[in-house]
Amino acid sequence: KAGVTQTPRYLIKTRGQQVTLSCSPISGHRSVSWYQQTPGQGLQFLFEYFSETQRNKGNFPGRFSGRQFSNSRSEMNVSTLELGDSALYLCASSSVGGALNYGYTFGSGTRLTVV
Amino acid sequence: AQKVTQAQTEISVVEKEDVTLDCVYETRDTTYYLFWYKQPPSGELVFLIRRNSFDEQNEISGRYSWNFQKSTSSFNFTITASQVVDSAVYFCALSINSGGSNYKLTFGKGTLLTVNP
Questions:
Q1: 3-class DSSP assignment, residue B50
Q2: CB-CB under 8 Å, B105 with A45
Q3: Is B50 at the interface with chain A, CB within 8 A?
Q4: Which sign, positive or negative, has the C-alpha torsion A23, A25, A27, A30?
Q5: Fewest Cβ atoms closer than 10 Å to its Cβ: which of A92, B28, B44, B114?
């Protein structure tokens, strides 16, 4: 069974640009969550999608957005990039999402560097 | 609000030593779920265990064991006879089963474990 696939693995962008990251969940999983990991703030929840609906959103500015497609693949977009957006962005999939699921499966992440 | 505290930022041990990683959590909810994840240098988070708030039984899986104590709001993780391959960052996380917070994990800051040969 293929795992969670995140593309690209590495990305370098310039301040002010926008970026789109992609996540393909495990086949059959309908919930996709996104997390930002930085040395200072640690792992922080961005948002969660289930069946194309956003069910929860973390405390991030509106520059961070996401969406989920009918095949459960998800994308997150960051507009007007700032240096502080440099981070490892992790995607997690689960069958139904929420606390009731047995565990989230994470991808290897996309490492974004903003220069 | 939920909070997870991993007071140990870094731990260094010699191979074959036992090591315990501490995790203390805060939540007002009576139904919640606790997780441990391992993050090797490659970056992905590897699921280790999930425990719900109604199950205080300790669990052992090979060299890994977990001690869940609701009285002290702790969910500690012990590696017995550590190996170099155990070197990684370990995260404790909490999820509650209520409303909009149902769909996210609140992570601790992580503990970097280095096992030296």
A1: strand
A2: yes
A3: yes
A4: negative
A5: B28
Cross-chain residue pair A31–B103, CB shorter than 8 Å? yes
Coil, strand or helix: which one is B80?
A: coil
Place of tokens 């391959």: B85
Integer-rounded Cα radius of gyration of chain A: 13
Interface-testing mutation among A53, A106, A108, with chain B (most B C-beta atoms within 10 A):
A106
Q: Residue A28 corresponds to which tokens in the numbers above?
A: 């059959």
Tens digits of residue pLDDT in A87-108:
999 999 988 655 555 678 999 9
CB contact under 8 A, A48 and B45: no
Per-residue pLDDT of chain A in tens (115 residues, 90 and over written 9): 679 999 999 999 999 999 999 999 999 888 899 999 999 999 999 999 989 999 889 999 999 999 999 999 999 999 999 999 999 999 999 886 555 556 789 999 999 999 9
Contact pairs from chain A to chain B, CB under 8 Å? 70
CB contacts of A58 in chain B (<8 Å) are: 104
Residues A57 and B94: their CA atoms lie apart, in Å, by: 16
Looking at residue A88, what DSSP letter applies?
Answer: E
Place of tokens 């060299």: B63
**Cis-peptide into A8, omega within 30 deg:** yes
